[in-house]
Write a structure and sequence with these properties.
heterodimer, A: alpha/beta, 2-enoyl-CoA Hydratase, Chain A, domain 1, 2 domains, 8-stranded mixed beta sheet, 11 strands, 35% helix, B: alpha/beta, globular
């Protein structure tokens, strides 16, 4: 539920251009502002609906949740944080995985949720992504991962860092079997997720203006103590520097994914 | 991090950390007595002997029970030996190889051939730099993308000629800068992790001092992982974590404790295979001993890994990482008596043997031990085969580990 982004009421003021837009129109346009083209963040369930053929999504590992390996407590306990995220999003974890069809083509799909603890990756996310990729390898079908994440989940300590290697190892095996892997980077794709499976796609697509990068802009500013370049760490910046293949509007994602699948023959 | 320079350089190299202050005092007293003995001719030997044994006892007590924040200070100790020191002490005929053949030679990562025991190896390690000039050149051991690409290029060279790879980790993290982002630091680390998971030669990793997040993992995926007694390996620096979750860097010591990143904790969590002993008081008190301990681990591990065929090695490596940090449950099918089993498991891991061996043993037993549980996870199993592996294994592995005890 993207309640954080879309306030109550029938109308809302666009964060990008300040125009008043009819909420229903925003939903029809897949949460892209009809005036300025700003791509709002999308929760995982809605994204699955947007991408897949109606009624074809078959979910895996819906019940997986991270345990609390460090018995974590900062200003809140990790368990509290998890259960409030679960209540707010209606999800059990920050990624939804399953098998689906996109315009009739079978794929394994993993979609991250930016509203679940910043879409961060802990043990359950790592397991769900790795299991999904393995499934794609076993079935010899492409895997599509829509990434949006603040990175590894600090509350799980080094356990979360290890998920970077776990998921990447699964992708290496898929690659060894000549399996196709398409990444769709959406806002934001950063840190531990950017430095693992998000950057390993055979083809990397990104949504316009999505934030993509490794270190946080504040950390970088603290190191270099200088103005960061215009549009730093955006999808466009990453494309210009050679790390994104194509920038694709949300409305075209389905057809663009199919195009790549058809070219790669699998 | 505060360092007290108390002038007694002759005895212990001069640098004391805040928490070492009581020891420094005792050491100075002994020194004074000895000096007094020499000048006045009075015999203090009995007194000195008692104080010496008191000092030894105090040291043992202090250094075996360092808390997380003290560990961080030890790992960042200005006198702590660096990767080049270890190479000098344990590697013969080191032949440095520079550059990533694409952009430049990143000095933050050091690569080259060398001999250790009876093995020819490719050594890859961070280099923080020994003096101000070198530290600046090396960006304090924080590598840019070209550093990770250099490491990978040399690993590929080693793979081509069947030479095993040894990775020595000592970094606060990858360099957070504009150039690093422009040249794809995230992609460089991602590719290294992926390629290391399938490199066709043995890979041994050791965290020598600081294991800083992705910057460490970028040369930290292999068949075995060890960590020095007073080193730490974390997903984020304690300062960074405190700034984000406690909204203030002042809570760094609190964050350090919460992150459970000391060698002992990581061993308990099953994330490292072995903790390498340091000389009493830390590696900087006796670098040759520290290096000898690291050397022994590397040589023993290579001897063991060398016995396996490449395909077996790769299969085991895949399993190792696939099962790494499996701290999750299936909420639709919660395993029975979860908490009790976990406590037992943690106790066992901490008390004996190498974690990897136990993991293998647990896996072997998992299918059998898991059989009676299969009924309870049937729903998940029906939905997806992968769930079955993950969820049952998690519960059953623990059961299997706990079984031999009871």
């Amino acid at each position: 539920m993207a309640k954080v982004e879309v306030p109550e009421g029938l109308w809302l003021r666009c964060k990008g251009c300040g125009e008043i837009i009819f909420k229903k129109v925003l939903e029809e346009r897949l949460r892209v502002c009809p005036e300025c083209g700003l791509h709002y963040r999308v929760d995982a369930r809605t994204r699955v609906q947007q991408l897949t053929d109606v009624g074809t999504f078959e979910e895996f590992n819906e019940g997986l949740v991270s345990t609390d390996p460090l018995s974590w407590k900062d200003q809140k306990t990790y368990r509290e944080r998890l259960s409030s995220a679960q209540r707010q999003t209606g999800l059990r974890e920050a990624v939804v995985t399953g098998k689906a069809y996109i315009k009739g083509r079978a794929v394994i799909l993993a979609v991250m949720d930016p509203f679940f603890v910043m879409g961060s990756m802990g043990a359950a996310v790592g397991e769900k992504v790795s299991a999904a990729v393995e499934k794609a390898t076993d079935l010899s079908i492409p895997v599509v991962i829509v990434t949006c994440s603040g990175g590894a989940r600090m509350q799980e300590g080094l356990v979360s860092l290890m998920q970077m290697a776990k998921t990447s190892a699964a992708i290496a095996r898929h690659d060894d079997e000549r399996g196709l892997y398409i990444t769709v980077m959406s806002d934001p794709t950063t840190a531990g997720v950017a430095a693992s499976y998000a950057s390993l796609g055979d083809v990397i697509l990104a949504e316009p203006k999505a934030m993509i990068g490794f270190a946080g802009p504040r950390v970088i500013w603290n190191t270099v103590k200088a103005e960061l370049p215009e549009g730093f760490q955006t999808a466009e910046f990453m494309k210009e520097h050679g790390f994104v293949d194509r920038i694709v509007d949300r409305a075209d994602l389905r057809s663009e994914i199919c195009r790549i699948i058809d070219y790669c023959g699998k | 991090m505060s360092i007290i320079l108390d002038g007694s350089t002759a005895l212990n190299g001069g640098n004391y950390l805040e928490f070492e202050r009581p020891l420094a005092k005792l050491e100075r007293q002994i020194e004074e007595l000895e000096a007094g003995q020499a000048t006045t001719g009075r015999d203090h030997s009995a007194m000195i002997r008692t104080m010496r044994s008191e000092l030894l006892g105090a040291r043992r007590k202090l250094y075996t029970r360092l808390d997380a924040w003290e560990t961080v200070q030890m790992a960042r100790h200005p006198k702590r030996p660096l990767v080049p020191d270890y190479l000098n002490l344990m590697v013969r005929d080191f032949c440095e190889l520079h550059g990533d053949r694409q952009f430049r030679d990143d000095r933050a990562i050091l690569t080259g051939f060398g001999r250790i025991g009876n093995f020819k190896c490719m050594f890859i390690g961070h280099n923080k730099g020994k003096d101000t000039k070198e530290r600046l050149e090396n960006c304090f051991g924080m590598a840019h993308p070209e550093g990770y690409r250099k490491a990978l290029a040399k690993m590929k060279l080693a793979e081509k000629f069947g030479v095993p790879v040894v990775c020595l980790i000592d970094t606060t993290g990858a360099y957070p800068g504009i150039g690093a982002e422009e040249r794809g630091i995230a992609q460089a680390i991602a590719v290294n992790i992926q390629e290391m998971s399938r490199l066709r030669v043995p890979i041994v990793c050791v965290v020598l001092s600081e294991g800083g997040s992705g910057g460490a993992l970028g040369i930290g995926v292999g068949d075995r992982m060890a960590i020095l007694e007073h080193a730490y390996y974390s997903v984020i620096s304690p300062e960074g974590c405190a700034a984000i979750l406690w909204k203030s860097g002042e809570f760094a010591s609190q964050a350090a404790k919460s992150l459970k990143f000391t060698a002992k904790d990581l061993k308990k969590l099953g994330l490292v295979d072995e903790v390498i002993k340091e000389p009493l008081g830390g590696a900087h008190r006796d670098p040759p001993v520290a290096a000898a301990n690291v050397e022994r681990f590397i040589v023993d591990t290579l001897r063991e890994l060398r016995r396996a065929k490449v395909e077996t090695l790769l299969k085991r490596r895949y399993r190792r990482w696939r099962d790494m940090g499996s701290f999750f449950v299936d909420a639709n099918n919660p395993p029975a008596k979860k908490t009790k089993a976990r406590a037992k498991d943690a106790g066992q891991n901490g008390s004996s043997g190498s974690a990897s061996k136990k993991a293998v043993a647990a896996k072997g037993g998992a299918s059998k031990a898991g059989a009676p549980k299969a009924g309870s996870t049937k729903n998940a199993a029906a939905r997806n085969g992968a769930t079955k592996n993950g969820a049952i294994k998690n519960g059953a592995a623990k059961k299997a580990v706990a079984a031999p005890r009871g």
